[in-house]
Specification:
44% helix; six-stranded parallel β-sheet
């Protein structure tokens, strides 16, 4: 089964997204250029928010869940229409289940052991978490031993003005949380933040 990588590898982490706001938030992010939307499951309403975004059928966009810790989470997100798995950790059984269902898998890793275990289980990208702990030196070391072309996405504290350093160290994308979306943010502010991330990305890599 061939699964395409996101055309813009910036994952919007929408922790605490209210299902009633999910459609408008997703539309703003898509218009700004985000093509991967993650709703973490450790807040109420996550599955309903995922289902609402999926119904939009946004072109060229991966929608799914974050903080997916077990096979039940995988099945629930898949049933809601989600096709993206993001987790803070590496659990091979969870990755295998999601990959078997045709989901794009980006589990969290912080060590070479976890990284290789995730790839063996079927991961398509590796979420480097927490990015602050892995650091630029850590990602350089990982990149030197991982298969060429492995997508590496730092997550944790990423801001537009830190993206260049991470890219120089070997990052190929990012997961972006509270510097992009927080519950209660206005749509105008969200648009400004999203535009800043996408414009910076495009200036650095295009």
């Amino acid at each position: 089964m061939t699964i395409s990588h996101p055309t813009t590898p910036l994952v919007a982490i929408l922790r605490g997204l209210n299902p009633t706001e999910a459609v408008e938030v997703a539309q703003v992010l898509h218009t700004s250029g985000f093509r991967a939307l993650e709703v973490p499951l450790n807040r109420p309403g996550a599955l309903d928010a995922i289902a609402a975004i999926v119904k939009l059928d946004l072109p060229d966009t991966l929608v799914g869940g974050g903080t997916m810790l077990n096979v039940d989470h995988v099945d629930a997100v898949h049933a809601a229409g989600g096709r993206l798995l993001v987790s803070p950790n590496c659990v091979p059984a969870v990755i295998r289940r999601a990959a078997g269902l045709g989901m794009y898998c980006a589990p969290g890793v912080a060590t070479p052991t976890e990284a290789f275990a995730a790839l063996e289980a079927g991961a398509h990208a590796l979420k480097l978490f927490p990015a602050e702990s892995v650091g630029h030196g850590g990602i350089k070391a990982l990149k030197s031993v991982l298969p060429a072309g492995t997508p590496l996405w730092p997550v944790g504290g990423v801001a537009p003005d830190t993206m260049a350093g991470w890219l120089k160290a070997g990052a190929t994308g990012f997961g972006i949380g509270s510097n992009l979306y927080t519950p209660g943010v206005t749509l105008d502010e969200l648009r400004e933040r999203a535009d800043a991330f996408v414009h910076t990305w495009r200036a650095l890599v295009v």
